[in-house]
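Input chain follows. Return structure tokens only.
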Amino acid sequence: MLGAWVALLVTAGSCQRRRDGAGSALPAILRIGVSQWSASTNPVQGLRQLSQILVVEGLARTGEDGRMQPSLAEGWTVGANGRSLIVKLHANARFHDGSPVNAETVAALLPDAMKKLVGSVSDVERVHATGADTIEVLFRESSPFMVETLEAPLQKPNGASTGPFEAVANSTTELTANRDYYLGRPELASVRVEMFPSVRTAWAEMLRGRTDMLWEVGPDALPSLEKANSISLFTFTRRYQYVIVLNPDAPQLKSAAIRRALNLAVNRDAVVRNALNSYGVASTGPIWPRNWAMPRDAATFKFDPAAAASLLSGTRLRFTCLVPPDAPYERLALEVKRQLGAVGIDMVPEEVSYDEQARRGAKREYDAMLTELISGPTLLRPYVIWHSDTPYNWGRFGNARIDAALDRVRASASDEAFRAAITGVQQTFVDDPPAVFLAWSQRARAVSNRFLVPASESGRDILSTMRLWKPASAAEQRASRN
């Protein structure tokens, strides 16, 4: 992942152009301390995410309720045929190499971008320009996923994109403000990243005033930072959840009743409290809990050890679970093992590397595996993880019943049909569970009070507003401490 980040910076930096007045100073430099753990051992965290948020953009972005919001596009409408989108591009937008974001260029880039994002689910038949700043995206069939695929990041072959920041030439650790950004030049002059062996070391440097932000603070470190008066903590719920995937090919887990028993035996609130230091949200299934279409009365698993014992009918169940070597996976595994043991189930954790887990997952050589899977906020994301016909189902998760339920979501022709299909998905995951969904993970960014961070959408990562961050005055810093 770190190699991919370096390659992205070098490639993007090579297309950075000289501008008139390039020597003029912008207000501030933000120095981010990144721990080695969060940057290199987990592919869903770290520097790649910073690049995706600040450098690369799509035509749309996801809101916390799962609805799509305009980004590089000013808006879109559904065509008269019901299976096309007419997209209006944002006025005056430019790529980092200075070229305009026009309909012809976007029409050429979008099909491949959509395929990279969601594989065959993009279902694009044709993209063509209908004017200087409008394109039509024609799909093979009508689907609520049409709009969700507009999230696909647009990037030219030379690495140029359109975000508020761009890579500095010949640097692997710095982004600079995009002075021509169509929503206005960022307040920050640049963002610089420095690696540290641990969060503790990065925090010490922040106390000395040598860094301005901790990239990510996990459950272990959060309590020690909450009382600091020189920083502000911004907690957010990530769009990933911890899941114990169950392999129905394993003889001891073949029965749906056994897999239901496992789900009933787990107290997810206790998992969040004991394994995540209360920094998490108990899971109810594969669907983002704040999705606009998620029904309040949808089926879900409730902690019921007596019902779990009844389903087991005296069977002594024993199975192994692949566990990555990093926290908090170890604590999660131990907590779940303890809870399952209370109803006579013996889960044996087996520590393996991420590479080994991926290899055995692809070959279905496991009983169960503890992992973290993207699940929100849109329905497209759990679709590409759990449907057997997508390239992102790396662990061959799910089953035929789940495929059918997800396909009904994809084929929904109205909001009412979409809600009904989601209800069906949730019920299918309860009736024939392919996993034990544990908790949505929470993290925090720690930012020095030397910077003003504007409010963002409730629950959203503050990185999405970084182009609006600016230095705080001395009076504002004193006020923040009080």
